[in-house]
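FAQ: What does a multi-protein file look like?

Like this. Sequence, then tokens, then the next protein.
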Amino acid sequence: MDFDLGMVPMYSYNPNIILDIASNETGQAKLFIPFLNINKTYSLNNGQTTISINNSLIKRGNFTENRGINLQTDVLVAIYVTLYLSSITESYLALPRIFTGKKYVISAFKPLPGEYSEVLIVSNAKESSANVNMSVNGETKAQSLNWLNSEQLVSLSDISGGMVISNSSLSVIAGTSCARVPTNFTMDCGFLVEQMFPTNAWEKEYIVPNMPPRNGNLIRVVSENIGDVCFHIRNGSSCKQIPYPDPLEIMTGSEPVVVTSNSFIGVTAYGVGGGPFMTNVPGIGNFMNTYYFVVPSTYASYNNYIAVVAPSADIHGLRLDGLSLTTSQVIKVPSPYNNYSVIISKVQAGYHILIHRNETVKFGAILYGSAYNEGYGYPLGIQKHIENEPDARNVNVCFNCEDMHHIELCNVVQRCQGHEICFLERFMMHGKQLFRSGCMDEQICFKEANGSDHDRCTECCVGSYCNHQGCGETGLPGRSFRGPLCFDCEYAFTPEECDTLKLCDDGQLCRIEETKWGTSSNFKMGCAHASCHAVTRSILPRSLSPICQTCCSEDFCNVNCTLGSEHGHPVIIG
């Protein structure tokens, strides 16, 4: 893995930069810092490795100098970068080069008088120079940067919403040397820093977890253009327009918030109460199944927590260091992601592995902590789909049934249009309670949901198959307590044509097979025995023998007869 990094300054004396590296195997790391004349190789432990970098690399003010850091490893790692001084600290998740991009929108914060909102741009271009264009607070600047050249821009006002565009990939680290969050907070200011996610890693749907014992979050949303953003809490939804190029900002209480948009957005959460911090919020599509991470030993005396965002039905499968995740608080996420929950768990300093035992379950995780007036926070890791590969993240597949007495009996699905999400409606007809489900325009759905009453309920949700529950109904039990829900069709030219499901017996699998039919293919999908033999088998002539057949064990999984291919392969960080 290859990382190009840097650090913006605190408001006072700057301590050494600490790199905490998490690895699940031994290996080597090569550190290259031209400014400090460092070219050194380190051994990586199976667990945690810590490297300290001299603070003379950090500089206040505007400059264009060769102050970048390059770290290369021969094994998969996650890296967390920390500045710690007594009563002042903050950390960020480092992004490898493969994750960085060519376009960024900056998130920072308003500095105290005399302090700076700041951004450091580090070139990743090894073969040729990067031509960088920056637009910050109405001023534009163009700069050519060679590999590890760094351009630092500072301002006495908030630079959030500023844009950085290049012809090659960059690492962008932004923050504020001294800020109060919110700005009317009366306690001492704190240092804020994060490595920005590139715009091609943004999503349209986010769940911002509550982070107790803090009493709320300040949420900021940035975008590449004017767009609509909806904030969903337990008591309802509110939609606003992003005041592009400025960020859209809201204060929240001590509950999770769902953020949705009709365009790709970046979301940052700022801890309120205690020492301030800022953290990127992973979108739903950034969630992972496994995180190898480090709580820096710097924070050994802190109260450290992980806020996990996971499907409610799958909480029991979460494991921290091989043991069931100990929860101090579980809070249900509001609609349209009310099939998710936020799980708060206390964690000690050191190396950890957070995993779900079902490898198909993806969840988000943010580490945060505090000690009196000090605070920090960062995501444990994120995944990003490789650019230019087909991406179906934003196409919802919803259950689609009419006049059902029981929602768990729905066996038909519908693929929505780009502006649609899933809904479930409960209503009364001839004195009987019935349900209907399907796809609905997002804005219409939320309007319908806000008009629900005792006799009629409409719930909206984002994410494929999410309307299997709602309006007080829990639907089918979790996958661990039944057989899989599989697509079930005898004849289809493509797997996407199949819109019927079958609940297979416990112990059975989902199966898909492809046979040649002239110049096309015929797909057969359904249940299978554990041996991957179809439950109902037809005797095919030799000319119609399957050219592909695959079995899988999770709900809705039999849609790809070549599961081993690299189509849609994600990049994993953390």
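And here is the next protein:
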Amino acid sequence: MKDPSRMGFTLLLFLWVATCLILSSFTVTAQEICTDEITKPEINTAIWEVNNNLSSDILISMQTEECWQCDLVIKYRLGAGSRCRVRVDTRWPMNYALTDADVIDIHCRNSFHFQEDGIFNTEVVRNENGSQILCSEPSLTNNPANSYDPIFIALGTLVGIYLLISAFYHFKNSTIFRRIFSRFTQESLIEADLGSPDSINPADDTESFNNHLLVKERLKSLDAFRGISIVIMIFVNYGGGQYWFFKHSPWNGLTVADIVFPWFIFIMGTSMAYSFRSMLRRGMKKRSVLKKILLRTIVLFSLGIMLNCFSIKDIDVTTMRIPGVLQRFAVTYFIVGLTHMFSAKAADPHQFVWWTPIQEVVIYWPDWVVSITLLVIYISVTFGVKLSQCGRGYIGPAGLSNHSHLNETLCVGGVASYIDRAVFRESHMYKRGTFRHVYQSQGYHDPEGILGCLTSCVLCSLGLEAGKIFLMYRPSIQRVKRFVIWAVLLGSAALLLTYASKENGWMPINKNLWSVSFIFATGSLAYLMLIICYLTIDVWKIWSGSPFYWAGMNAIVLYLGHELLAQKFPVHWQSSHNNHWNHFLMDLWGAIFWILVAGFLHYKKLYFSI
């Protein structure tokens, strides 16, 4: 017969290990006493009402699914036989657990996506014989409005207004309108007897058509694409209606806000193909081209530093942020421009050789050597350098991620942040990372840091490739075919690197790190958007590109202007209504305001560039 004392010790040891395993899946924080004081949800939240019908207290633990590999965090303690209301995040599905406060016995653990402005109820009870505790799934007790209504209604209204304006101008330019209008003029009597000048001299029309063919090609689609990007950027920078998909991703993932900056980098590369060929055809020497590259780099970088300091009173140069959006443009333009300066050509010398179908790649092979080299350096440094605190190849946000096992101050962003800290020091880095709210990480990471400049140069080179295609192939079918090929290749590469998932891939899509999959995904989307704009504006001519064309012609003015007027009237004002309707309409008005400014500048034929 076994020794009872040994059996008792074994049982206690088993219970202790089981308790430790259960507790290891939770992060213990200061617990709040859960009350019934919360009466209504706020923006991007819902109310979760929990009724504890047990004779013991329960702990309410929660964690959003957006927090990858994060343990549940104990938030509230609910007394026996009481009820409380909890405000929960509705942007992503919520993992939760209701746990016995005394026995550490999990009552229920589940995941649920709460609806915004909803009030949900969960009952915690025992079964009929009292041997098991049951928790009902959160059930909706009210009838909340659809939080996406502002988007649908505003989009439908804007499309309707645009269609009405387009129909009016189409009718105004039609023969029927001219005939109707001519009835109310004295000239109609003369035209009735002598004929209209527009219809009796077809030779003039032929001459006009021939002259039109001699006009230098300007791609309105490229300006419209640039305008689309700057308008979206203004809208999301002003708040995007406080919708999560108009905000930057907390870490891995891709939202609308994440794609506009890469699109600008891509478009800058496409424009470079035209500007460099134009300079060479004007006979500019490489020394003059280099001076122009240096001047534009200095101007862009200086403007970026000034924008970083604009809203700060009593500037302290010891804590001033050095990296930034325009600074990233400057560095990218300098590296890609310097490379392309040595390979750019005033004409296409090889148009009748066997490799003509891929001449834009073969002729400019030095550009590709540099791009591949930059990719290799980025991958080698990111995944090859070992940090003492974080290990080799760590690219996470630290904090609660990876079950809180890493130093949250030093491991944010891995080696990318390590390089920025070594060069700039933390005092000169970005201090409001998108990851902080979700991952509760206190470390610093600059999304426009040094290492990401390498992959932004590769993305710019992909845009430069689009410009080469425009220059080297005149038939639209040849251009579109190559754009489609590049879109498919880049999109497929992004899917392979991410395993077609958000978190599980070798190189997840990450805007904070400008990961390889990120530039491939955004590059693919850029080619697709370029195809749409090119076909509808320049080929089929079913769209003039307005009003985005106006914005694209003065993109730098709109960017600087919207930054200077951020949080200021007339694009922003204080409101007591904290809901999507108020935020969306105000942020949409901010974007429309700058479109109107661009339209006025276009009307006055005032265009500014750097």
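Q: Is there any per-entry metadata?
A: Some entries carry free-text notes. For the entry above: The chain has 21 helices and 13 strands.
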